[in-house]
């Protein structure tokens, strides 16, 4: 008999045969067998324990802003952290759960006169996802602010890691593949709200002018090679505007692949592979993806 999970076991929303298109910013993917939105870290732990007990595969998602999900769908359970949004504001520190929207946090911090998160005003992911991949923009990274991270390890045990115990580098961290992030402590510095809000306004306008926000996308597809721009290389190689099926290299920013309406994961992967091969052929540079691809 198929194992059952219900609100009798845990608190949160549970859906069966749920479209992955609703769980990622590319709006791509088949259906998930099960999707679970826990309302607390305790419920997340219970859901994870249920999956382990019943040998059900698990995938943890935030807002799905830098991932490509498969056309074939996902067997097992997708656990979405978007309801984990408890937050505590201290004098200079913020204790915030993994599912909190990063862009919202940046704007609230500016309102409160806390400086340091302005760079994140246009990043569409969650705090947990941002810390996991060391998200950044405008010359700043989330790792600059991290002081502690509360995590769940592969054995199901909760631990608190200090900043010194975590290795951060460009768009990655030592947390990836080892932990699920539950909560983070970020430290900011006092600032003038009017100045911070103006900085956010400028960053927002720059993003609007430079990125194809009118189409579903997953942000920058490729990491920048050292001292180079992936977008500039892709544009120089002539890829702007080129399409495969419903996927298109943005004419606005060559490091963005947009969904023009009916793009599939295969369309996007075909474009990514073709661009990667072409850039290596023309420039001898091997581009690495910033987006995480699930197959």
UniProtKB/TrEMBL annotation:
Which GO biological process categories is it annotated with? cell division; cell wall organization; peptidoglycan biosynthetic process; regulation of cell shape
Name the enzyme's class.
oxidoreductase
Q: Where is the active site?
A: 171, 220 (proton donor), 290
Q: Where in the cell is it found?
A: Cytoplasm
GO cellular component terms, alphabetically, are:
cytosol
Reactions catalysed: UDP-N-acetyl-alpha-D-muramate + NADP(+) = UDP-N-acetyl-3-O-(1-carboxyvinyl)-alpha-D-glucosamine + NADPH + H(+)
Q: Its Gene Ontology molecular function terms?
A: FAD binding; UDP-N-acetylmuramate dehydrogenase activity
Pathway stated in the Swiss-Prot or TrEMBL entry: Cell wall biogenesis; peptidoglycan biosynthesis
A single Pfam family, by name? FAD_binding_4
* Cofactor(s) required, per the database record: FAD
EC number(s): the record gives: 1.3.1.98
Q: Which UniProt keywords apply?
A: Cell cycle, Cell division, Cell shape, Cell wall biogenesis/degradation, Cytoplasm, FAD, Flavoprotein, NADP, Oxidoreductase, Peptidoglycan synthesis
Q: Which residues form the FAD-binding PCMH-type domain?
A: 28-191
What the entry lists under NCBIfam families is as follows: murB, PRK13905.1
Family listed? Belongs to the MurB family.
Function description: Cell wall formation.
For this protein, the record's PANTHER family field holds: UDP-N-ACETYLENOLPYRUVOYLGLUCOSAMINE REDUCTASE
Name under which the protein is recorded = UDP-N-acetylenolpyruvoylglucosamine reductase
């Amino acid at each position: 008999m198929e194992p059952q999970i219900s609100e009798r076991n845990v608190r949160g929303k549970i859906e069966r045969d749920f479209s992955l298109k609703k769980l990622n910013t590319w709006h791509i993917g088949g259906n998930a067998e099960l999707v679970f939105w826990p309302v607390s870290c305790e419920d997340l732990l219970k859901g994870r324990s249920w999956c382990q007990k019943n040998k059900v595969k698990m995938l943890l998602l935030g807002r799905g802003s830098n991932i490509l999900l498969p056309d074939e769908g996902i067997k097992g359970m997708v656990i979405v952290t978007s309801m984990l949004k408890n937050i505590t504001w201290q004098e200079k520190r913020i204790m915030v759960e993994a599912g909190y929207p990063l862009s919202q946090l940046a704007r609230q911090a500016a309102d409160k006169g806390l400086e340091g998160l302005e760079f994140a005003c246009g990043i569409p992911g969650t705090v947990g996802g941002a810390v996991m991949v060391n998200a950044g923009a405008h010359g700043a990274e989330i790792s600059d602010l991290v002081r502690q991270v509360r995590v769940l390890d592969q054995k199901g045990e909760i631990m608190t890691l200090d900043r010194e115990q975590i290795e951060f580098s460009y768009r990655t961290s030592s947390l990836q593949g080892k932990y699920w992030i539950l909560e983070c402590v970020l430290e900011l510095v006092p600032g003038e709200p009017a100045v911070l809000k103006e900085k956010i306004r400028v960053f927002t306008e720059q993003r609007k002018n430079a990125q194809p926000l009118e189409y579903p996308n997953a942000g920058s597809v490729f990491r920048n090679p050292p001292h180079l721009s992936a977008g500039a290389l892709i544009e120089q190689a002539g890829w702007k505007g080129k399409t495969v099926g419903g996927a298109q290299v943005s004419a606005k920013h060559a490091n963005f692949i947009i969904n023009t309406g009916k793009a599939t994961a295969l369309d996007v992967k075909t474009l990514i592979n073709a661009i990667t091969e072409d850039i290596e052929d023309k420039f001898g540079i091997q581009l690495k993806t910033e987006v995480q691809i699930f197959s």
